[in-house]
Amino acid sequence: MFDLILNAAGLGVGLAMDAFSVSLTNGLAEPCGTKRRAFSIAGIFALFQAAMPLFGWLLVTLMAQQFKTLNRFIPYVALGLLLFIGGKMLIEGIQEMREKKRLEKESGVAAAPACAMVRTSLAGLLVQGVATSIDALSVGLQIAGYLWWEALLSAAIIALVTLVLCFAGVLIGRKFGTKLAEKATILGGVILIAIGIKIFLDGILA
């Protein structure tokens, strides 16, 4: 039992790193959000990080050969989703910066830093959750020999680790987001694109 918990905690930390990085970008984009909002963001990532290993375990248990075929497409899906979200955030950040400069030029007065930047929609968070957790499907191979309750326990531990790390990630991102103002949205978009490329390269080179 102790080995199972230790292994799940280690998996949780490893799997949550991409979600943690994306949580940082969400914090950058929403520097004045509430702790409840941070918990909601972290909860979405935790939910997906728990669901994907369980889904992978189920696929391996029921149809191992088909899962191996599906596994090849994971890096491409993650790359596409994060390029889309990151590119959208990048474009919105550039548009915000241009609009701010235009208003400053017309008024002759420097605009005060905006508190609320680009707020990621629920749909956007769900896409981020899928993109950062889809590689966790492969964990199904690692826990293929687990009993159903062992797989559930592992998923719960992974979710808890993800929740804590992503909550911290959002709060850390907000600290920097407050200082960076509209540049935070651009930086967040660049980070998301970089994470997508990293997941893709890790997947095809593995």
List keywords for this structure.
mainly alpha; elongated; single chain
Topology:
Elements: H1 2-29, H2 35-62, H3 64-71, H4 74-107, H5 122-133, H6 139-142, H7 148-180, H8 183-205
Please explain how this structure is put together.
By secondary structure, this protein is mainly α. It has one domain. Helix content is 83%, strand content 0%. It has 8 helices and no strands. Helix 2 packs across helix 5, helix 2 (35-62) runs antiparallel to helix 7 and helix 4 (74-107) packs antiparallel against helix 8. The longest helix has 34 residues, at 74-107. The model has no long low-confidence stretch (mean pLDDT 83).
The number of helical segments is 8
Secondary structure category: mainly alpha
Give the helix proportion (percent range).
over 70%
Cα shape: elongated
Sheet bearing the most strands, described? none
Please tell me the total number of domains: 1
Strand content: under 5%
H/E topology pattern = HHHHHHHH
Mean pLDDT: 83
Low-confidence stretches: none
Q: Indicate the radius of gyration in whole angstroms.
A: 19 Å
Distance between the termini: 29 Å
Count of strand segments: 0
